Amino acid sequence: MNRPPGKLTDLGTLLGNLSQERQWREKMGLHTVFLFWQEVVGEEVAWRAQPTIIRGTVLWVEVGDPVWLQQLHLERGTLLGEINRRLPSATKLTDIRFQLNSSLDQEPTPAEVADASPPLTPEEARELDVLLATLADDEARTTMRRLWLKAHGRK
Question: N or C: which end of the chain has fewer CB within 10 A?
């Protein structure tokens, strides 16, 4: 920027030039992913996986559970495509990196508990116990009970 010696340049012009030089508009465009993340991944995933930072053109996402981490890793290409489709800037993300953060995997919120299905009736509980009785290992029985209840949306 050429200007006569001793002539002041207004702050707006300086910031505009600096913004253009450093490509801040394009970089800010990448950060809109934080605004629509839940729309792309859905409420359940957004509760367990949260974007934390963009370094260059790489989005870093913290995930609360190793199983979710694996699933998101498998869907990385699809997620990247959907995110880039929604970005307003010409600059696009080149990758998504996932890292484990177990503090995100917390107890369900009160709203999730309120939405849960009713507990098993005594008859259903007996039938499930009969099915699980074939497992000799107590830990395996407990784990299978939890999985069955979760798969059937029951307490």
Answer: N
Domain map of the chain by residue range?
19-104, 110-151
Cα→Cα distances 97→74, 83, 126, 155, Å: 11, 14, 45, 34
Residue 148 · residue 128 · CB < 8 Å: yes
* Cα of 95 vs its chain's centroid, Å: 14
Q: Which residues pair with 49 in a beta bridge?
A: 63
Q: What is the DSSP letter of 141?
A: H
Residue located via tokens 């859905």: 42
Total residue count of the chain as it appears in this document: 155
Q: Are 77 and 53 in contact (CB under 8 A)?
A: no
- CATH architecture of the region 19-104: 2-Layer Sandwich (3.30)
With beta carbons less than 8 A apart as the criterion, state whether 79 and 40 touch.
yes
CB 68 within 8 A of CB 50: no
Amino acid at 19: S
**Each residue of 4-22: pLDDT tens digit?**
677 777 777 666 666 566 5
